[in-house]
Design a protein that fits this description.
The complex is a heterodimer of chains A (about 350) and B (about 325). With about 350 residues, chain A is of the alpha/beta class. Chain A is about 35% helix and about 20% strand. Chain A has an 8-stranded mixed beta sheet, sandwiched between helices. Chain A has a 4-stranded antiparallel beta sheet with strand order 2-1-4-5, with helices on one face. In chain A, a hairpin with a 2-residue loop joins strand 4 and strand 5. The two termini of chain A are about 40 Å apart. The C terminus of chain A is likely disordered. Chain B is mainly alpha-helical and about 325 residues long. In chain B, about 75% of the residues lie in helices and about 0% in strands. In chain B, helix 1 runs antiparallel to helix 13, helix 5 packs antiparallel against helix 6 and helix 5 crosses helix 8. Chain B is globular, with a radius of gyration of 26 Å. The structure holds adenosine-5'-triphosphate and magnesium ion. The site of magnesium ion has 4 residues of chain A, from helix 1.
């Protein structure tokens, strides 16, 4: 097999804050092949955004951040290259779409210019060339009347339209990888679906690899090939989308899947939230972070951190019970429907 | 391609600030407010002079008898009822009759009119210096909070802010005029006379402009669109000039404008006096010493009117430019 486009190895990210050190990402590894789509799923605060910001080192002004591990992109470790080298990759080879379209655009710059400036910076195109290309891109992402609207300021665009502009910015220089951090969460439902569809289309059309960050399994099911489930800064399960729905191994994944409302069940009976709260990330977690909320937890789960167990070529689970649970679940079927 | 959602007919976010009804009504509203403020200033001066104090006493020689004082009062029409006195006083002030200076033996307005250009010149030179220090420093510091430059310049600006302005003026006189003899100690004897008083203004007000510009820059740098600009690969300087300053430029200019207005309301009086600069500040303080009520009153009212007008101009310019940006 060829080397993956992006390979993250044992990524750890911590912030020094007034309340102590926050371990926001703890031992994360994953890879994305060219043209492939990976989903990163987990509840709020599990470290999804921090993981994605680490890739391009886009932390805030006040963040006192410590990074370790490796982020290999086309053979280079992004954590160790200079800011100048990284700036060729940001927006050039890796594009990014952020969560909140209302605040992601510069309020005093025409939207077309916000797309075109990136093209000029990375390709050295002239102003008219870049503008022409920006209009094509805006048209491609579904801005009606793009040639006219490209001179308007963001405030005259709706949330969904602004997110389309963001997508145009992210793909402006034909990146190899697109990172979308909850690109549809801030939008209303119909618009959400359109944005997701747009990303999916563009990915297939342009052969871009995609990292889709979300807490919604519906989004995952519709758009990705593989899934990484995160909990409390740590990876829980890493598998293909088929395995996720047919053979979820980790009790946390199983718990999340039970939360997905399904049309073939009446609401209520089957929707069981996971009891308890995720641990605070400022505390040292010795065992499995999910153990306090896990119905199956044993002594060792509380004391020792479980290894990432390899269950197959495309399936890993960070659970002490992974092997025996895998044996039990090899019969195809939906785990939450198997009577216990 | 899927169906495309329509842009909502209403703007998603309300426009910044009250743009309500365009500039004409705004101008009228602000002019009305300005006139009301000015009338209040005049009324307060009248009350202080005629109700709390007694103008006849001010005029009378120290050894005047009661009869003499009463005669003076009659001469000035002070025996008339209150509302009549107030009315005629008002009419005088608004027709430009501020009375005679007893000390200088000429109309009070003339004395003030002579001092005004000197003060305008000093304050303008001073505020330009303050803006240069404050804006450049504030932007550089605010764009890299916590850096060595930020911490150093922040310390300097806080020091500049907390030193009393007259003390700073004296310090500059001692160092640059007395010790090194580079600039004159006081008065206005040549072009170099303006350097030290203007520098005092630049340091004190530059410190404040620095603080305000720095925090505006820090706030702007923390906005999500800045991260997006960085995600395009732009280096720090390009993010700052191409994106952040486009948004803070107007606020920054307004900060400097307001600071200019503040200067008129305070520091310029003490600083002029320390340097014996022949402007309104020195005139006002001297008039107070000599109990020259008419000059004092004229200076306060003219300076008040100047502040009100300057404030109005700053505000209107902000609106005009802001609307321009929004509508472009
Ligand atoms: N700049 C920062 N300084 C300190 N702590 C941070 C910082 N950014 C994130 N964190 C902490 O790191 C943890 C992970 O945050 P992150 O934003 O990655 O979560 P997330 O999975 O993206 O959640 P959400 O679904 O709400 O976006 C959180 O506990 C958060 O409080
Ligand atoms: Mg997030």
């Amino acid at each position: 097999m060829s080397t993956p486009l992006l390979e993250v190895r044992d990524l750890c990210v911590s912030f020094a804050t007034r309340d102590g050190v926050v371990r926001a990402v703890d031992g994360l590894s994953f890879s994305v092949d060219a043209g492939e789509a990976l989903g990163i799923v987990g509840e709020s605060g599990s470290g999804k955004t921090v993981s994605s910001l680490s890739i391009l080192r886009l932390f805030g002004l006040f963040d006192d951040v410590t990074l370790s591990g490796e982020i290999l992109f086309e053979g280079r470790d992004l954590l160790r290259i200079s800011e100048a080298e990284l700036s060729r990759i940001r927006g050039g080879k890796i594009g990014m779409v952020f969560q909140d379209p209302l605040t992601s655009l510069n309020p005093v710059m025409p939207v077309g210019e916000q797309v075109a400036e990136s093209i000029r910076f990375h390709t050295g195109a002239t102003r008219p060339q870049a503008r022409k290309r920006a209009i094509e891109l805006l048209d491609r992402v579904g801005i009606p009347d793009a040639a006219k609207r490209c001179d308007e300021l963001p405030h005259s665009f709706s949330g969904g339209m602004r997110q389309r502009v963001m997508v145009a910015i992210a793909i402006a220089c034909e990146p190899k990888l697109l990172i979308a951090d909850e690109p549809s969460t801030a939008l209303d439902v119909t618009v959400q679906a359109q944005i997701l569809l747009l990303l999916d289309e563009l990915r297939r059309e342009l052969g871009i690899a995609l990292i889709m960050i979300t807490h919604d399994f519906g989004v995952v099911a519709a758009t990705v090939d593989r899934v990484l489930v995160m909990y409390a800064a740590q990876p829980m399960e890493y598998c293909t989308i088929e395995h996720l729905f047919d053979r979820a191994n980790h009790p946390y994944t199983e718990g999340l899947l039970r939360l997905v409302p399904r049309l073939d069940h009446r609401m209520g009976g089957r929707l069981r939230p996971i009891e308890g709260q995720p641990p605070a990330l400022t505390e040292e977690i010795s065992g499995c972070p999910f153990a306090p909320r896990c119905g199956l937890a044993e002594e060792r789960c509380h004391n020792d951190r479980p290894p990432l167990v390899r269950l197959g070529p495309h399936h890993e689970s960070a659970c002490w019970l992974a092997t025996e649970r895998a044996a039990r679940l090899t019969t195809p079927g939906r785990p939450w429907e198997t009577p216990s | 391609m899927t169906a495309v959602e329509k842009t909502s007919p209403l703007p998603v976010r309300p426009r910044r600030g009250r743009t309500g009804g365009g500039l004409g009504p705004l101008l009228l509203r602000r002019l009305r407010d300005g006139v009301i403020t000015l009338v209040l200033v005049v009324a307060i001066i009248f009350i202080l002079a005629h109700v709390v104090g007694d103008p006849a006493l001010v005029y009378a020689p120290i050894d005047a008898t009661d009869e003499e004082i009463e005669r003076i009062a009659r001469n000035f029409g002070l025996d008339r009822p209150f509302h009549e006195r107030f009315g005629s006083y008002f009419a005088d002030v608004f027709t430009g009759d501020f009375g005679e200076s007893m000390w200088q033996q000429r109309p009070a307005l003339q004395a003030v009119g002579e001092a005004l250009p000197d003060t305008v010149q000093l304050t303008l030179v001073g505020i330009v210096g303050a803006a240069v220090f404050g804006i450049i420093g504030g932007i550089l510091a605010g764009s890299r909070p916590g850096s060595l430059f930020d911490r150093g310049s922040n310390f300097l600006s806080v020091t500049a802010l907390s030193v009393p302005n007259f003390w700073l003026g004296l310090l500059l006189i001692v160092v640059f005029a007395v010790q090194f003899g580079i600039f004159p100690t006081s008065g206005r004897i040549g072009p170099s006379s303006i350097v030290l008083p203007a520098l005092t203004i630049a340091i004190v007000h530059g410190g404040r402009i620095f603080q305000l510009v720095r925090s505006a820059t820090v706030e702007e740098m923390s906005k999500p669109y800045v991260r997006v600009a960085r995600s395009k690969g732009f280096p720090h300087r390009r993010v700052l000039w191409g994106h952040v300053l486009r948004n803070t430029g107007l606020t920054t200019a307004t900060i400097a404008g307001w600071e200019y207005v503040r200067l008129w309301g305070g520091a310029v009086f003490a600083i002029e006096y320390v340097f014996a600069w022949p402007g309104i500040g020195t005139l006002t303080i001297n008039a107070a010493h000599r109990q020259d009520f008419f000059v004092l009153q004229a200076a306060v009212i003219i300076a008040g009117a100047f502040v009100i007008v300057a404030n109005l101009i700053v505000d209107l310019l902000y609106r005009v430019i802001d609307n321009r940006i929004k509508a472009s």
